[in-house]
Specification:
The complex is a heterodimer of chains A (261) and B (241). With 261 residues, chain A is of the alpha+beta class. In chain A, 23% of the residues lie in helices and 32% in strands. The longest helix of chain A is centred in the C-terminal third of the chain and has 34 residues. The model of chain A has no long low-confidence stretch (mean pLDDT 88). Classes of the chains: A alpha+beta (261), B alpha+beta (241).
Chain lengths: 261, 241
Amino acid sequence: MNALQIAATGMDAQQMRVEVISNNLANMNTTAYNARRAEFADLMYRQVQAPGSVSAASGAVLPVGVQLGMGVRPAAVMMNVEQGASTQTGGQLDMSIEGKGYIEIALPSGISGFTRDGALKMTGDGLLITAEGFPVVPNITIPDGAREVTVSPEGEVYAMFEDQVDPELLGQITLATFTNEAGLEATGNNYYRETNASGAPQVGAAGEEGRGMLRQGYLEASSVDAVREITELIEAQRGYELNAKVITAADQMLGATTQIR
Amino acid sequence: MDTSGYVTLSRQTGLWKEMQVVANNVANLSTTGFRREGVVFTEMVQALPNEGGGVAMAAARARFSDPTQGSVNQTGNPMDLAIQGSGYFMVETDDGNRLTRAGAFALNTEGEMVNPDGLRLLDVGGAPIFIPPDAAVMSVAQDGTVSADGAPLAQIGIYEVQNEAALSNQMGTLFDPGEDEPLAMEGAVVLQGFIEGSNVNPVTEMARMIEVQRTYEMGMKFMENEDERIRNVTRTLGQRA
């Protein structure tokens, strides 16, 4: 009877794979989205005949045993930490991070979020915020009358004023890196939260200690590769069908069993 | 006379086991580093009392694990590693070191390379591999040397065992080497940004499945006939008496 359950675990796994793929494809144009990949591992094995058990009085041992697998389980949905292509937007407050690092933002709950989506905006008071309205940490305010805002690759924000020759330094956008970026918790809305798996954020200036540089006027595109996703989709669909076929075959075998008296 | 039903029965139970193995192979069609399995039937010969020769019962007594390489797929993730040719990665578990072909690794909070279940990958010397958090670029050379920003850190250990067939499967695409001490392998080739898929061939599995199913039905037919025959014997003998 186990063949039915085993094939069902296989169908579940392929179904989950399709869900991950469809989420990737749906986020093809999401700024700084990282493609995810479902990762599977086999389930436990039932020891029918343990390898190495004695098979004869002469002391001969079985070189190989019989182990029956119980199917498959999802092991992880891995985030492919890969930089998407930078696309030029020309936006004064559009920032792409070249290399590692996240911009820290203050969430309404008081804790910090981390994002690579550098499409920043301004509030009426000139405070730098993300598209969702969360202020960038440390807070940077662009005063009234600032003519042109420039951001250096190190994250220093300068503004030019009508009555000044030299640009004025308003603040510095810092970047946070994590030991294990793939361990960040995705919360939606293009930001992540730190977890025990990701480790604590290491905040510092851009371009230092392995942190990436900021590029003003560019945005990071989604790293989803449509061709790869479609190939995976075909594989997942066929895998699903194959597992369904196994269920049909096992069912027919059971049917044959019930027919004999 | 009374053994023929049992001979078929031994075959039928064996076929169910084989069906389970096929189902498990198909279920693990997209499991990273999974190795296809099969069942080998052996006969158990029982001597007949009067006539010469004997009755052979079939029993699924051995299994094999197919060591051929699975398809290698490009992922572009620097933490994804595939072994070209033979050899295994070694990971550390509470019950001792285990071998695996699944090369999807990530970093844990300490900056050590771990598999999706959090088990640490070991280097040639049997120590975990630490990647400093400030490393901007991490690369793995073909011989398994891990370097961060150009500075070599460690060499990923690729191990081999004497008898691959004796490896015992464990949950999580792990293999237990048992008594067979794994030795570091010379000349192993590691590919970065690639991952080895499962080596299950859907066509072969489907062919085996159909074969198992039809053989099973044949056995059932045989048992039906056998049932019929014994019934006839009882009836005929009853009439004569």
